[in-house]
């Protein structure tokens, strides 16, 4: 079973890789802003509704003055062939996703327990939640499809590091992890991290697009040409973070309850706890900054990116370099 | 999030100019007012939030006294003046340092300054009727017109959708989503409550740890003298600790087929003030609750039984826990010290330089091939060896120092007050080692020991309740949607308008749905 899981992981990564190439193809052959146009259109009021509502939900600005129509609604979407490539990309993502799920299930069967008891499994599960979040998003707003290139890229990088650097063979849990709180706390942490991964991709793309809009044309900003409108991306970034933040809060609370059960005290400033706190504070800062009219949107978005940075420090630096009571990583 | 009416706290720059001339008093008042406004602004709160995050970083990278004081001492020993400088700036006590406290206290003052006016205006909003319709409804983000209009029916329609409704003549004002702001306030007050709970924890809580060796002779009681280390809250007196005693009967570790540990269990007896003995089982994740305190199993290891017979033939036995230097294999280090060895039975006197101590490493499973390795292969006792180095001289332990030492005084070894004599030996259980001065040391076997921590924390329940409120408040605050709807009947013409007061992309749909429902009822 353990070996099967490993083979399935290879299938997963390969499927995501081909999907990424297909997304990239759609993005680059889609013509000027096919994506951008499509995405803007979904965000802007549809023609029928314009009669009734003008720019409802245009956040940030003064709602009393209707937001200007975001873009002239062009009827044509991506051309037939590119749309086909895009659908192929989605199909492959789903194949990769199924293999991903199977990887995790096989791992759980091999170890006879929930498959997130060490760092390798944790990252595997975070990526799975990231992929889930992406597919849900895609289902709700098909127009964001070509952004899949960035999501799959992030997934491939994480899974690659996971398989190469963090691999641990399947085994029983260490006694300290033997508690139903593992299921609750770690599941919440995995879910929040996976959603925040997608949030990070959205935040980074927002910054790229904003940079492009300001006339920057050097590398990452040059991608902005093909991206949806900054406003759309920015709102997406906020949505995803607003969804993930309470889950993260819940994960920390459950961690504290478990800590009281296993290590005597609900909070001891163990390095892992400290960095969870840091991430929490940074993301709270992001939500505040975004709710504050005097803080520019790009500044707020930068805070979200920094937040993801702290999540990564917590995952990699704290697990692998610093020792604390959370030393469940199991990486030699 | 569209803060339509920017919170008052955000209007920093509107600070009045400082008055010139006419005395010191008004100037101070104006300065204080401006400072207060600055402090309670959202920008300041944001900066403080960031400072808090940054200030926490060194606490995770440098060893902290509150977590592992031994690591701090090691760091100070190995880093010389850098260590002392860091210590001067409280970098080994980050979370109780003045600068860390200053940041969070300022943040909380800022929070209170921000919350109180918000609470006041929220209560006003809850008591007040939804505001009257603006003069030109057509300028609102959602707008529709129709024919007909029964004001009462329209009001009933909105009430059914749980809007708060006010009818003024021919206009209906309705508002919904007050829970958003209630949730927001709940969230922020919960933050304050958590801080208070944490303070209660640290003032009224206490904890103590002890390595307890199995056997009736090694029971320990809940008094400070019996702990290896402890912490008492500022408001706790040593006499406040409830009197109970715990004895370790047996310690079990189980392993999987692949030799990975799967469970640790300490079988104990405990007795409270009444002296009645109760049997109990303590496992990792399953502490024992006694008299409002929790007794936790945090670690375990072996205590070698070392019998020393001095050159006058008098024997003493030491059963001291050896501390694992590697938790996975239980390679452990410790000492057996005999400060009152070699007392001449004739004179009843001891040459202080005739004390004896052994520094030891215990390997539960020594490699059978590599006999020089000082690493155990496995935590179970499959091929146990006790490696001993004998020291003779003045141990420096007479001055009433605690006897539960885990290392000999390295300074005395360096200065020659303690001298190694004879070579190192590796003993199997039952083996003995005759020393050159005619004395003898014998390794009799081991007893398991468990590291137990006892903790009482009266703040934890408050903190938990506050944390749950925080989460509930957060959900309401993030997902609640405040919106207003107005209807105005003018003859047989009717106008409807809507205003989402927060980011709410679905508002248009909701507005449409309400208009359609009104049409269906024939009131629109
Ligand atoms: C301990 C530090 C704090 C944390 C962790 C924190 C966290 C949060 C979170 C998570 C939200 C919900 C996000 C949202 O609704 O946008 C929020 C909202 C808010 N906080 Fe804080 N907060 C803190 C301190 C403060 C302070 C000091 C102020 C005032 C100066 C403040 C003012 C606000 C306001 C006005 C909102 C509502 C924003 C809106 O929804 O329009 N917070 N806070």
TrEMBL record, chain A:
Region listing for Disordered, in residue ranges: 55-77
Domain Cytochrome c assembly protein: 116-326
Localization: Membrane
Keywords associated with the record: Cytochrome c-type biogenesis, Membrane, Transmembrane, Transmembrane helix
Membrane topology: Multi-pass membrane protein
Positions of transmembrane segments: 6-25, 88-110, 122-140, 147-168, 180-208, 236-259, 274-291, 298-322
Primary residence: membrane
InterPro entries named in the record: Cyt_c_assembly, Cyt_c_biogenesis_CcsA, Cyt_c_biogenesis_CcsA/CcmC
Residues of the signal peptide: none
NCBIfam families: cytochr_II_ccsB
PANTHER family documented for this protein: CYTOCHROME B_B6 PROTEIN-RELATED, HEME EXPORTER PROTEIN C
Protein's UniProt name: C-type cytochrome biogenesis protein CcsB
Organism whose genome encodes this protein: Planosporangium thailandense
Gene label: ccsB
From TrEMBL, chain B:
InterPro entries: Cyt_c_bgen_Ccs1/CcsB/ResB (IPR023494), ResB-like_domain (IPR007816)
The keyword Membrane is assigned to this record: yes
Keyword list, A-Z: Cytochrome c-type biogenesis, Membrane, Transmembrane, Transmembrane helix
Residues in the signal sequence: none
Entry superkingdom: Bacteria
Transmembrane region(s): 44-62, 99-119, 185-206, 461-479
Pfam families found in the cross-reference section: ResB
ResB-like domain segment(s): 42-512
Membrane-protein topology: Multi-pass membrane protein
Location(s) in or outside the cell: Membrane
Classification via PANTHER family: CYTOCHROME C BIOGENESIS PROTEIN CCS1, CHLOROPLASTIC
Protein known as: Cytochrome c biogenesis protein ResB
